[in-house]
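B., you asked whether I could sanity-check this one before it goes into the benchmark set. Here's the sequence:
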Amino acid sequence: MENKTKIDRNWFLFDASKKPVGRFCTEVASVLIGKNKTNYAPNKDVGDHVVVINTDKLYMTGNKENSKRYFKHSGYIGSTKVVEFNELKEKDSRIIIEKAVLGMLPKNKLMKDRSKRLHLYKNETHSHQNIKFIN
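And here's what the prediction gave me:
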């Protein structure tokens, strides 16, 4: 039986400029959940830390860069806010990956702890230089 102190959490380094956003974020989400481990269980949090670099260089295939929209609604009538992919990429590209990855995580009690292990950086420099990465 695993408890929080015995879980071995590894660190993974992913480069956002290598794959399209959707394919890339599914890999990140599965590592955060812990599906790459042999002791995975849906009710246990055995996931690893993920550091994502080069979020400014992310891309989408096809015409999605021009047509993708992100919606936000407060619940009041007429309060829908729409932001285009290119606008959000210029403003803060980390939000795009964060929305995609958090949308792929299961919506349960473990989601908060899993989302804290996601570290996003706009370029190649990050504050986790002294950590030994697996990937």
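One thing to flag: The radius of gyration is 16 Å. Otherwise nothing jumped out at me.
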